[in-house]
Predict the structure.
Amino acid sequence: MSENKYLDGFQPLGNYALIEIEEAAEVTPGGIVLAQSSVQKPVTAKVLAVGVGQKNGLNGNLLPMNIQVGDRIFHHRHAVIEYVVDGETVNAIHEGDIIGFWRPTNAIE
């Protein structure tokens, strides 16, 4: 879990989620150290908080988020919204920019 003090009790609105970006590998599995310019921006993250979802425009029913806290997501490379508050980085993403997710097998359902 992130040590970011701004996540304590924070509730994203609508279809937004707060995420912790997974760092890109700087060394290949074969042991080759990659130059900083060749390390691609990561596309996976861990979900730290989720909004309640959005209302259906036709009938006003709430459509809940498909992801949960603890899920790992695969997202579009440039979809993350990064905020810096008092020197702390907070990352958010809209659910529509998430390509897919996987849930840890030990998650409680």
Remarks:
- The chain has a mean pLDDT of 81.
- DSSP finds no helices and eight strands in the chain.
- The chain has one domain: 5-102.
